[in-house]
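Worked problem 6 (solution included).
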Amino acid sequence: MNFKKLAALGLSAALGLSLLAGCAGSGSGGTAATPTPAPVESAPQASAPASDPGDGSFTTVTEGVLTMATNAAFPPYEYYEGDQIAGIDIELTEAIAAKLGLTAKIEDMEFDSIIPAIQQGKADLGLAGMTVTDERLEAVNFTVSYTTGVQVIIVTEDSAITSSDDLFAEGASNTIGVQRNTTGDLYTTSDLEEAGLATIDRYSRGADAVQALLTGKVDCVVIDNEPAKSFVAANEGLKILDTEYITEDYAAAMSKENEALYKAVDAALQELIADGTVKSIIDRYITAD
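Solution. The predicted structure is:
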């Protein structure tokens, strides 16, 4: 059975799920070790002038500040380095803010609180390795995509699951760990749980899902490739299967009610992509295999 084809077909069904309502996740007996990347340099300051939002003005939640909501448990996009939040999305926000003559402020929260925070006017934008989906587009606007992500499968080194096809095998009944309300949650719910082939255990953080795998509470974890590599490197006895679940586009989520700010941020991001700033930021965190 073609796993990637089924994953893609399952997306349209998955998009019918409620974005804001997540089932309660199973608890875990501890916290998986998380990576401690070396300090990175600050993102280079863009030399171009601040982008024109269209009518020459825009408003933010706090005057002079660009407030970004994130979930700082998704390395290398956002994670804690000591008591500071670091990562690709943090540097990207700082670069956008500099373009617009603003100061960046980062707010850490649960992943499924990010879009409500934007809708309620508590944050100007959300960046958390967030995938553009039709369901999310009903709630928020998305900027141009700044990178792509790949969902992969983490298993223990002695796992009986050796390929993605094993998840679809006749009589399969695996328990899969995911971070609640991520696309990994949406895809697996559509493709596997609804087909009666798996049980989905949902966790607030990817690290908690990985801990559940280490303690035998789940059979595998579906998560983005980059944090997957970090978790496997930090926790002995795990590996990533050589199968891409699905490729997806990451972008910044923004309110539908603040068109001027959306246009300004989107234009600034396009300039940062064009002048190589975005690639420079990503390349400092993600190296080619």
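Discussion: The chain has a mean pLDDT of 83.
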